[in-house]
Amino acid sequence: MLTGKTSSTVAVYSGEHLFRVTGHSKITGDNAFVLSDTFSVGGHDWAIQYYPSGDTRVVDGQFASVFLLLTSACESEITASYSLCLQDPATPATADKYKFSFVVPPSMPEQVKGWGSIRFVSRANLAASGCLKDDCLVIKATVDVSKLIDERKDDLGNIIVVPPSNLSKDLHSMLGSGLKEDLTIDVGGFTSLKAHACVLRARSPVFRAQLCNPVSAMGSTIRIEDVDAHVFEALLHYMYNDRLPPSMEEATQEAMKMARQLLAVAHRYEVQRLKLLCESKLSKVLDVALVGFALDLAEQYHCQQLKDCCLKYMAADCERLQAIIGT
């Protein structure tokens, strides 16, 4: 009797597309929209559809709408997840704003051909976001398509599935593991943290200069003054993980306080991407009470993009500006 074993693997195909909308103010009229060029992810063709004044059949024209469209035909089910967000045209690789994410359940192309957000961003918030520059807007779509691969077919088709990079996971596992941690960091004389000197040198020009100094290099301990221990732990988390700590994912008061303090530390140690991440977090919670403080912070630490967001937020509404002046 012949017996056999079968197995399958889920492969995830990922892709990004930047849609540069030029002449934004000239796209007028009820239900006026623009469509990006098609791009391929996971064997399917996609496009971004953008309504500057929204889909007026559903909203009142005060919100922009954006959708991800499936433009290719397919006979099988599609399982995908995606995100849509705005980016600064001057630096499209830095901060995401007004990010909208969605997981598409398995569905047939005949049933649904598009997904997105009807109330993606209001006109007032768009004007204050800093993303609309020189009448140009950049929308980024990130698409992940999951496919079930029968390994019997892999044997025939000679397909090799390559998993995503796990570099950040490996680095994270080093932090606090005791694995050749050759550096002790004394924070304020009260908290002692362990780290790897090579990681700090690679991630910060300031630490690189300090730890490569012949005098400093002789010791295995450095002292950090005028930094809260929790804030320095957040800095270490970023250096090993290349992302903010999970506690900063939500726009809570504690998370925003941490963003302000972490921005100052990122400026001090010249960790530029972390500094921009903190700027991005603060720019998304601007209000009448906080915009003045955020502007002072931007001036103090030379945060040009955060400064631009603050000024545009203040100038977007006359009544708002008077309220800000009155605070």
Describe the structure.
The protein has 327 residues and is α+β, with helices and mostly antiparallel strands. Helix content is 35%, strand content 29%. The chain has twelve helices and twelve strands. The chain has helices at residues 123-129, 151-157, 167-174, 197-203, 205-212, 214-217, 229-241, 253-268, 272-283, 291-300, 304-315, 318-326, and strands at 8-22, 34-35, 39-41, 44-51, 63-70, 78-87, 97-107, 114-122, 136-150, 183-187, 191-195, 221-224. The strands form three sheets. Strands 2, 3, 4, 5 and 8 form a five-stranded antiparallel sheet that branches. A hairpin with a 2-residue loop joins strand 3 and strand 4. Helix 1 runs antiparallel to helix 11 (304-315), helix 7 crosses helix 8 (253-268) and helix 10 (291-300) runs antiparallel to helix 11. It starts with 7 loop residues before the first strand and ends with a helix. The model has no long low-confidence stretch (mean pLDDT 82).
